[in-house]
Amino acid sequence: MDERNGPQADAERFRNFMEARSSLAAASHKVAEQFDKAVMALAAGGLSVSLLFVEKIAPHPKAATLWCLAAGWVAFAVSLMCVLFSFLFGYHSFRREIESLNALYRDPSLPIAPRNKLTSAALLFNWLSAIALVIGAVAIVVFAIMNPPAP
Questions:
Q1: Which of 57, 76, 80, 111 has the fewest CB atoms within 10 Å, i.e. the most exposed one?
Q2: Has residue 142 been placed in a domain?
């Protein structure tokens, strides 16, 4: 019998698969965590910089440009809230997956659980946070361009 196709080879292949899968899952978590931190830092920084800009550089902005400032602030706030919702849905998604795995371990005859909608919600809120961040940045840049510092 060829050992390369026997039970030991299957076990080794499975171990290699699980190690690679675990490594990719850990890397994925790290990237998601860094993304969330970056969005939070950029949105909070955008709010801070825009407040400083209004206070120090354009204390009397043109009235016609205030909508840009408001849109930027709202978008940054929405971005921060979306990251928080992403955390919340992500946490509950993991809890649900753990419960499903526990149930499958106890009773292997159970059908595999359907796609976890909380995971989709977390992903949606990640995308929304990034989109809101970009909108906020663009709105603040437009506001700054339309309100140059006084000479």
A1: 111
A2: yes
